[in-house]
Amino acid sequence: MPLARLVWSPALLRYDFGPGHPMSPARLDLTMRLADELGLLTSRDLEVVSVPPAPDVVLETVHDADYVAAVRAAAAGTPAPERGLGTEDDPVFPGMHDAAARLVAGSVDVADAVWDGRVLHGLNIAGGMHHAHRGVASGFCIYNDAAAAIRRLLDAGAERVAYVDLDAHHGDGVEAEFWDDPRVLTVSVHQDGSTLFPGTGRASDVGGPGAEGFAANVPLPPRTTSAGWLRAFDAVVPALLREFRPQVIVSQHGADAHARDPLSDLRVGVDALRQAARVLHDLAHELADGRWVALGGGGYAVVDVVPLVWSSLLAEALHAPLDLAQPLPPAWREHVAQVSGLSAARYLGIETADWRRWATGYDPADDVDRAVLAARKAVFPLWGLDPYHD
C-alpha cells in the first residue's frame, strides 16, 4: 500500500485568474518541479493521480445549486458580482467552473482514499480554497474543496473530523459550513481579522448552538514571528485535538504567513511552517491511525516561499523530511531564473529561533501571549481545559 497519495496533473494549472493576479498557477508548477527534482515524485511510497472535475452532485454537498449554475454562467461570459464572480479578487475566466471543480475533485479523492484505508496520507496542494461559501465566491476561492472533503468524510461515516487551518487568512468558509456541527472541530491560526481579509475569526467565535467549542480561532497580531506563531500553534492546536480525538485530520497549509508574502503581515519562516506540519502529521498518527488529508491554500511569494513550503509538506507526508541545509537542485534554480528572472533560494531555509512553550508561563506584556490567552479563555473551558496552564 502506498504511504501517500498526491493529486496532480497539469490540468490543475487551469485555475488561472489571469496575468497580474496574485494566485498565479506558477506557484503550483514550481512546487511540482521542485518536488520532482528532489526525487519526491518518484518515491515508492507515493502514488500520483489525476482527477476530472467534480460533478454537480459533489459540489452541491457544500454549495447551493443556483450558485453552481452561476459559476457555469460566469465561465461562459455572464459575471455575477453579487455572487463574487467577476470581482477584482475573483475575475471570471473561460473554463472557470471546470478548473474550480477539479480542485474539489482532488480533495474529495484523497479524502476517500484516506478514509477507505488505501493510503495513510492524502495531499492536494492545489486545494485549500477555504474562503468560498455556499452561495458566494470569495478571496480567490470559487468552490470550497476543503469543506467538500470534510463533507465526504462525514457522509462516508466519519464521526469526528478535525480541520486545522494555518493560512494567514481566517478559514471562514470552512468554519461557516460546519458552524453548527459538533462532528467537526475547526481550528484557525491566522492574522487578526481586524487587520486582514476576510475580517473574521475572532477568538470569541466558538461555534453555533449545540456546537459550542467546536470552532476555535487564534487571531495573531501583525508582525508575529516564527517563535510567536509556533508558541500560539502549540498552545492551542494539540490540546484541542487530543480532547476531540478526531478520526481524521484535514489541514490547510497556506504559505502566506511567511515573512516574504505580499498579502499578509505575519513574519513566519519556512521552518516554522514545516514544524507545524510535522506536529499535525504526528497527531494524525497519535489520534487518527495516521489518517491525514493535507491541502495547499494561500501563498503569493511564488518563487522563494510556496515551492519550498509545499515540497516540505510532501516530504513530511512521505516520512522523509527535507534537511533545511540541503542545497536546492541547480536545475530547478536555473528554471526559476529562466521563467521569472528572479534568483531562487539556495537552501530550504534557516532553523527557527528558540520559542517558548505555553507551560513556561503567560507574559501579559506580550501581544502574542495576550492573543493566545484570549483564544484559550474563549474555547478551553468548553472542553474542560485550563486556559492558563497546560
H-E string: EHEHHHEHEHEEHEHEHHH
Report the principal-axis shape: globular
The number of domains is 1
CATH architecture: 3-Layer(aba) Sandwich
Q: Cα distance, first to last residue?
A: 38 Å
* Major sheet: arrangement of strands: 2-1-3-8-7-4-5-6
Query: Overall mean pLDDT score?
Result: 97
* Uncertain residue ranges: none
- The residue fraction in helices comes out at 25-40%
What is the CATH top level name? Alpha Beta
- For this structure, the CATH topology is Arginase, Chain A
Explain the layout of strands and helices.
Blueprint: E1 4-7, H1 26-37, E2 46-49, H2 56-59, H3 65-75, H4 96-115, E3 121-124, H5 145-155, E4 161-165, H6 172-177, E5 184-191, E6 215-220, H7 226-244, E7 248-252, H8 270-287, E8 292-295, H9 306-317, H10 330-340, H11 367-379
Helix pairs in contact: 1-9, 4-5, 7-8, 7-11, 8-9
